[in-house]
Amino acid sequence: SDAQLERTNVKIENTKNDKVFTAKGEMIKFEGFLKVYLEGTDNEEEEQAGLLPNLTVGDNLTYNFITATQRFSNPPYRFTEASLVKQLEELGIGRPSTYAPTISTVQKRGYIEKGQNEGVERNYEQLTLVDGTLYAKTLTEKTGSDKNKLVPTDIGNIVNDFLVANFSNILDFGFTAKVESSFDDISEGDENWTEMIKDFYTKFHTNVEDVKENAERESGERILGEHPKTGKTVLVRLGKFGPIAQIGAPDDEDKQFASLNPDQNLATITLEEALELFLLPKKLGTFQEEEVVVANGRYGPYIRFGKKFVSLPKGENPMSVDIDQAIELIKAKLEADAPIAHYENLPVQKGVGRFGPFIKWNGMFINVNKKYDFDNLTDADIAELIEDKKKKEQEKVIHNWEDVGIRVEKARWGRFNVIKGKIKIELPKTTAIEKLSKEEAEQMIEAKTPKKKNSKRKTVKKK
């Protein structure tokens, strides 16, 4: 039969002073199956874990030992993908088919990212009192690790705060679970979907229009202090391309901007750290008669060498990089970019990108699958990869009007693309693509081409 346990908080006073000890655990009120389980358990620690002896108010206790362990406040708990799915299940939010796409979407939009911090070891003290003798020892624990945890980004925090402030009724676990339940009822024919959508959208649309008209736009702005030399305001906020530091108030005419490093965020960066960002770009020296500069950009810190850009290793402080380190990185980049072969008198390079290993030839990026030994590609392998790619590219092309730089290609899902330079127009699969003329394609491109803005500027009279 089931065991009966009682969650108990025990306060233990002592006769020496006014200090009070506490113990938390569970007392067994009825053993049930535990009687058999505990008798068959060899591990004494497992047998006693979380269990308190049966106590009553006023009992006199004799201690065997007392342990005091140093504790630190911990950062907020972060979900892994698995623990987040479990939490969603418990809240009744989403369904098995939607968990993976939901997590993937918020990652792609930059609202969360997988942590990379391995954490650091720190010491803590533990005191143990045994038979009147106090023993002390120093132990270590790992702290600050967020590796493979889902960590909110600056833009994620700002978007979340904005939504909570303006759409609190939508960002409610109960509301979301209720909608999921309604979807289930609709799929089973127990609820009318038009009525359900109407009831939701009428209120939601009114809320959206009100927010569009009246809500202030969030930038996560945080004032850090003043510049020590100029006295200008120093702040951090979210910019068009990510978190930035700014010298100068929002209404100042002359403002300076610097991107935050990937390991910095709006909530914790200090004034000193922000000011350090403005020391970049910094000239380190020259190499092969080209200027070498360390700088910070949209995608993080990098080395600029002539017209080449070399990313710094993750976690590397750009301010600590010297010319020798920069030259090592440049040499590694030059070696990695060096041609591994030539095909039809054009260089072949290789690399590893977002979608795996590839070779680059004549402006084409060609994926290298597991059929090939990427580290030891032969001339025959390279020729086969390039010819296969050329054949596929040729099969994709339906029209190619070289005199006007327009081509028509097959696209996914049976659709078609009309392409000129960076302009791409997708056509439905019902299009009679073989009958499409050059003139019609030119008209499509012309309609899609952005109009040139008037370069004339208004002149403001000085008062």
Give descriptors for this structure:
disordered C terminus; 31% strand; 11 helices; four-stranded antiparallel sheet; alpha+beta; 5 domains
Per-chain topology:
Blueprint: E1 4-13, E2 20-30, H1 34-39, H2 44-48, E3 51-52, E4 66-69, H3 81-91, H4 96-108, E5 112-114, E6 120-130, E7 133-143, E8 150-152, H5 154-166, H6 173-187, H7 193-214, E9 222-226, E10 233-239, E11 242-247, E12 256-259, H8 271-277, E13 282-287, E14 290-297, E15 300-305, E16 308-311, H9 323-337, E17 341-343, E18 346-353, E19 356-361, E20 364-367, H10 379-396, E21 397-401, E22 406-410, E23 416-420, E24 423-427, H11 438-448
Parallel strand pairs: 2-3
Antiparallel strand pairs: 1-2, 4-6, 5-8, 6-7, 9-10, 10-11, 11-12, 13-14, 14-15, 15-16, 17-18, 18-19, 19-20, 21-22, 22-23, 23-24
pLDDT averaged over residues: 87
The CATH class of the largest domain turns out to be: Mainly Alpha
Backbone CA Rg: 32 Å
Adjacency order of strands in the biggest sheet:
9-10-11-12
Largest sheet: 4 strands, antiparallel
Overall geometry comes to extended
